[in-house]
Write a structure and sequence with these properties.
heterodimer; A: 229 residues; alpha/beta; six-stranded mixed beta sheet; 6 helices; 27% helix; B: 227 residues; mainly alpha; 84% helix; 0% strand
Chain lengths: 229, 227
């Protein structure tokens, strides 16, 4: 672990990820401070989602290291997961459970009280559908429920993969509120975007990935080896 | 910490069984397949009562085996349908809790299946169990434990493959031979009144493989489930 006084929210050191022979991330070195909201942009296949999935511990890095609140991404994966909330492309919900039951399951897995479920559903505008099965939800409603699951655990680090997709203007406003709330609480966020203008209001800085490397770094030109992990 | 993890195991069992109860299609098709296999064995063996009785335990094990494979595939299909596997893996819980939850849910599912197929087998194969039926049920439960442990483990491996319906039996069936053999032999012996006094040895073998499969699956699960 890093010592508390030096502790950024996220610290990545030459983080790389390979799928077969293709490098999806190339030597990404980055630090994010508490309260900072970072936009991640880049073309399709540039490694934006892979970056978020490696930080979330869903994928292990092939080379390099990373820490979230001082916890190592590989060695302390369970501790890392206590701090993160990941909103992926797909909502990842159980279609035969109701909205309330999906959040009950999330609360039980997170080890938190189920008392906040009604309020959370109300906040994302799904109070009227709390007892309906997710199977009948529209894409936007499913996205709102996934957002409700994310905020239920009050994570300190938000990992949002194209969070504005499938949302109406009120939904977009809701996403921005969630990001602002996290920032006010001292948390941080990574927001993957295709169009930087979508997140203009909440972003503190923007990083761009190209073929897995951070633009502005010279990682793309450097050969990668599997010698270090 | 352990109490919190056990609550997570319970949450996974509740989620899987609630989803299964709501969809119904899964259990109905699995139970129907189990009964169908028994019927086909019955037809194949013909009207010879002695042959039917001798084959009862083996036919029952095979019916549970084939129907169970469908159940194991379904348990991960539930996660894959809604892309829910990744969120499941990102909860702050050790991976063994996921395996344990899936194992218990699958075990309950298979036991429910047995509640249906065992009486059908008794009637269809004209089994006269005498006093041997109580230990035979114990053997069935033991066999189910090893079968479900290995099935849950291999289903998690196969779930990442597009050919999972084919891959799971290919991985699972060869490994299950000791469990299948010991269950079948112990049950046959017990139902026949244990004339050779060999049921105990088969039960010991079955118990040993149950323990090996359960421990190995728990330990290895973390390495096979990465998204």
């Amino acid at each position: 672990m890093l010592t508390a006084s030096l502790q950024p929210t996220v610290k990545l050191d030459r983080l790389s990820r390979r799928f077969g022979t293709r490098w999806a991330l190339r030597a990404v070195t980055l630090e994010v401070e508490p309260g900072e909201v970072v936009g991640v942009i880049g073309h399709n296949g540039s490694g934006k989602s892979t970056l978020l999935r490696v930080i979330s511990t869903a994928l292990r890095p092939s080379v390099g290291e990373g820490w979230v609140y001082g916890h190592h991404l590989v060695r302390d994966a369970v501790d890392v997961r206590r701090h993160i909330g990941f909103l992926a492309h797909s909502p990842g919900l159980y279609e035969d459970l109701t909205a309330t039951e999906n959040l009950m399951f999330a609360a039980r897995m997170l080890g938190i009280s189920e008392g906040g479920i009604a309020g959370t559903l109300d906040r994302v505008g799904l109070a009227h559908a709390r007892d309906e099965r997710v199977r009948g939800f529209s894409a936007g409603m499913q996205r709102r429920l996934a957002l409700a699951r994310l905020i239920l655990g009050s994570p300190r680090l938000l990992l949002l993969d194209e969070p504005y997709n499938n949302f109406d203007p009120q939904g977009i406003e809701l996403v921005n509120e969630v990001i602002e709330d996290a920032r006010r609480a001292g948390g941080s966020a990574f927001v993957v975007l295709h169009d930087q203008r979508q997140g203009d209001r909440v972003l503190d800085r923007v990083i761009e990935l190209s073929r897995g490397a951070l633009l502005g770094s010279n990682a793309e030109a450097q050969p990668l080896t599997l010698a270090t992990t | 910490m352990l109490a919190a993890d056990l609550r997570r195991v319970r949450a996974i069992v509740w989620k899987d069984l609630t989803s299964e109860r709501r969809s119904k299609a899964g259990f109905n098709s699995v139970a129907f397949l189990g009964v169908l296999i028994l019927l086909l064995f019955g037809f194949a063996l013909g009207p010879d009562t002695e042959a039917l009785r001798n084959a009862a335990a083996g036919a029952l094990c095979l019916a549970i085996l084939f129907a169970g494979v469908l159940a194991f595939n379904r348990s991960y299909q539930l996660e894959l349908d809604g892309a829910a596997l990744e969120p499941l893996l990102l909860y702050p819980a050790p991976r063994w809790t996921i395996f344990a939850g899936k194992f218990v849910a699958n075990l309950l599912f298979v036991l429910l299946l047995e509640v249906i197929v065992v009486p059908v087998a008794i009637v269809l194969f004209q089994v006269k169990a005498g006093t041997g039926w109580i230990p035979a049920i114990g053997v069935l439960l033991l066999g189910s434990g090893g079968f479900v442990a290995l099935g849950t483990f291999y289903a998690s491996m196969a779930s990442r493959s597009r050919a999972r319906e084919v891959l799971l039996p290919l991985l699972l069936f060869p490994m299950l031979v000791p469990v299948l053999l010991a269950s079948s032999e112990a049950s046959s012996s017990l139902l026949a009144g244990n004339p050779m006094q060999d049921a105990g040895a088969w039960v010991k073998l079955l118990t040993a493989f149950d323990v090996i499969f359960l421990v190995a699956s728990f330990l290895a699960f973390d390495h096979v489930i990465e998204v």
